[in-house]
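Technical appendix A lists one of the benchmark inputs used to test multi-chain prediction within the project. The record comprises two sequence entries:
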Amino acid sequence: MIVMLTPYTVAVLVSSATCLILFCYIIYKLLKVHVKLQAKSLLYLSSSFMLLAISQVFSILSVIVESARLSLTFYTATSSFAAIAFLLMVISVIQEERIALAFPTLMLVPDFLACILAAIASTLCRSRQLKAYLLALSMIHLVRCFSATLMSLDLGALMLASAELVRAFATLLFAAFHVSRVVSRE
Amino acid sequence: MSRAKKRSRLQIVIEVLEALSQYDKLHATELSLMVKLSYDRLKSILEDLSERGLLILERSKNEHKSLIIKLTPDGDRLLEELRRLKKLLEDYGLA
C-alpha cells in the first residue's frame, strides 16, 4: 500500500532518491579502488556510505508506505542508520583498526549504547539503590533495542510500550532518589 | 612540540604512485627518500603492489642489482581514480 503523493512527499522523495544515487556513486568509486588496493580504510569508509544509502532507502520507504506503524519503523531506522554511519566515519578517522570491534555495538545504537553506558555507570557508582536503578535502566534500553528490531510485529510494539512505561517509572524513581538525597543533606 | 601524524598504508601507496607517475622509472632507494619511508617497509609495499599488477619491479643489470620500479597502465589508471577521490579521502584523513 503506497501513500498518495503530494508536492511535499514528492520533494522529500526526490531529495532522498538523489542522495541515494550520490551515495551509491561514492560507494562504487571507493569499492573500485578497494578491490585494487585491498585497503581496509577504504572498505570502512564505503561501509559508512552504504549505511547512509540504506538510511535513504528507509527514508523513501517511510514516505511511501501507507501503514503508520511501518512508516514509523522506517522513519526511526533512517536516523539510526545515519547515526551509525556517522559514528563509523568518526571512528575510522580516529582509529581505523578499532572499527571492526566497534561495528557490532554500533549496529544497535543508540539504545544498545545507552544500555552499555548505564551498565558501566552502575558498576562505577557506590550507592546500592543507584546501582539497581541504573541496572534497571540498562535492561530497559536493551529491551527497547530489541523491540526496535521487531517493530513490524505486534510483539515489538508491545515490548517498546512496556519498556517505555517501565523506563518512565524508573526515571521517576531515579530522579526522586536524587532529590531525596539533596533534600536529606539540607 | 607537534608530532608528525603516522601515515596510513593508503597514504603511503598514494605517495608512491604519485612519485612514480612523475618519472619513467625510479630506483627503490630514490623512491624511499622521496616518500620518506624505510627501505624494508617500502619494499613490502612495492611487492604487494607488484602482485596486484600496479607496478613492475626489475633488478638493474649493474653490479649493485638495485631494484627499479615502473608504474603499469593499471597503476596509472588507479592513480587517476585516487586523484578523483583525493578530496574525499583527505576529508577523512585517508590521503
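The two ends of chain B are 24 Å apart (CA to CA). Chain B has one domain: 9-83. Comparable benchmark entries are summarised in Table A2.
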